[in-house]
Amino acid sequence: MRISAIKVVQPLGDFYIAKIKARDLLKISTSQVARYDKNGNVIGNQRPINIDRLKAIAKFIQSEEMCFPTSIIVAANVNSEGIIYDNEDNRWKIIPTQLNDVYDLDIPTNCISSLIIDGQHRLRAFDNENLDDSYRDIELVCSIFFDLPGAYQAYLFATINGNQQRVDKSLALELFGINLDKESEDTWSPEKLAVYLTRKFNFTIGSPLEGKIRLAPLCDVDIDKSKWLLSTAAMVEGITKLISSNPQRDRDELVRKRNNIWGKTRKILNTIPDNSVLRDLYLETKDDEIFNILNRYFTSVNKLLWNNAAPDSIINKTIGISALFDSLKLLLKKNRDIHDFDPYIEKIVDIAYSDNYFSLTGKGKTRLKRIMKYKLGLMEYSGLHEDDKPYVNHV
Prior knowledge:
This protein has helices at residues 22-28, 51-61, 120-124, 150-160, 166-176, 190-203, 232-243, 247-256, 279-283, 287-304, 318-334, 342-345, 362-375, and strands at residues 2-10, 13-21, 29-30, 35-36, 42-43, 72-76, 93-96, 102-106, 114-118, 139-146, 213-214, 230-231. With 395 residues, the protein is α/β, with parallel strands linked by helices.
């Protein structure tokens, strides 16, 4: 399915305004109700479905005065668990057109490919069994955010619905880690810490990523090299992988054991086997040490790679960021005491980052990771694929 959309640029990040028929949006989207399950785990990011409200909205839909002028908020490329898809077959594509700020959105219809952040009742009312099928052709205004990290899904919902009962907003913020200033840092889940560090990199004066991190599609459409922007999702995901192999498990465990003898602190995760490279620093609440390691690494990357990158270089895009985080993880597994990353980054400066071999696909990312791994001395030459070998200087 292909639709047209207008790009909107705002401080939080870019999003797209489009119209989608109710029947189509029902087919490709889902929502999650925020609740505590029987084990005390927090699930979802929305209020429970109100059946009476659905019936009232369905009745309104059939009236001559029917009108829904406000947007339904849609998180594209997010599955029913709130996790961002990395499978290209399940991802929405943003296609530039000849018109300024107008794009085509190519939407997969073979799966649930989006999550409704706000407007679930308006949309689900169209699914009423007593509603004539013709009403499902009504067009709905949608504000579409691409690759919206979990930390911001409920934040948008809670912000938009600021007049809801405090308990609902608190639940949403607790789940997705936006109210960091109201919690002790030793209670933060891996995702919350990743959100905090991402913000710190973005707003710290002199940071190698100062002012360069925003909510943005992972595909990096129309990137401006003079002020290139890293997606929040890429940064949060990269940091999270350094401190947790299963952030959902850790988050749920922190909620479930809130009344444990340790309180709701990271100490309760000590008994969970996890060999993530910076896991011990996370458990010991040594967040400044984690930031310092990342800061040293990205300072070298900024100086030796980003500052000299061509406009079409893959190293400034999400694929490059992902590969850089993967390389950092491997370097730290080999040596946790690296204070100067320059000698390592110098080894990967001469990779042909603008070559089509590293195109914006999952395969391109895998290729880049292999070649980086070899040039950093973390893999033997025999580990390269034949097609990789022309892109390394093997002696």
